[in-house]
Amino acid sequence: MRIDAVKAWRTALVVIGVLLLLLGAYVLVDTVKPIKIAGIALWFVLALIVHDGIIALVTFGVAFLLRKAGRTVPIVVLAIVQAGLVVMSILAIIVLPAVYKKSIGTKNPTVLPLDYGPALVLAWVVIVVITALAVVGYVALARRQKNRPSISQD
What we know:
- The chain is mainly alpha-helical.
- The protein is built from 4 helices and no strands.
- The chain folds into 2 domains: 1-31; 43-146, no CATH class.
- Helix 2 runs antiparallel to helix 3 (75-104).
- The chain starts with a helix and ends in a 7-residue tail after the last helix.
């Protein structure tokens, strides 16, 4: 693909994205009460703070610590660990508001009927186990491939 075609696609995608953003803003203003819009704006600001101030920082910190652990950590292992952290963070962003709302109570007890805090912790444990198994599996496969004799004919 030529550079001009790439620029044209990029420009088209940016224009489509901006138009969809404007459509979403219009629908939001048209269908949601102004007081609710303030709540949505607050949620977006807090989500940005949580993402940039906590999730990105923790993910970077773990990657940094893994790199400084003494020996070189394969990039695939870093990617697996970071993916696990991202999934855990996304679950936290989704579930923690429900945990908070349940703690302060609701007008209708059937709105939040489950105990979301322990479920979140259990999900985190499952993600940690799956991430660890993926790392162990990758390392074992990489060692096996490294120790395998070459079949090339010189």
